[in-house]
Design brief:
Layout (H helix, E strand, L loop, with lengths): L8 H7 L4 H8 L3 H8 L7 H11 L14
């Protein structure tokens, strides 16, 4: 099974000029954990998505790739 992109975390961080290190510090997480989220290797919990959305001042839905075909 191929790894499917589920979140847009890497793109949203780039759009805002933020780094994995910045997010790691804000969440008190290891940079490796953030990197694994950004590459969609693993996913943060929904609670963490909500916390990230607050830090980035975006709607949590902007962090997740839609599964609905428009």
């Amino acid at each position: 099974m191929s790894k499917k992109a589920i979140n847009r975390l890497k793109a949203v961080l780039a759009e805002q000029g933020k780094t994995n290190k910045w997010l790691a510090e804000k969440l008190s997480k290891n940079e490796t954990t953030i990197s694994r989220w950004c590459t969609n290797e693993v996913q943060p919990s929904m609670d963490t998505f909500v916390e990230i959305a607050g830090l980035l001042n975006v709607d949590v839905r902007e962090l997740i790739i839609s599964t609905k075909n428009n």
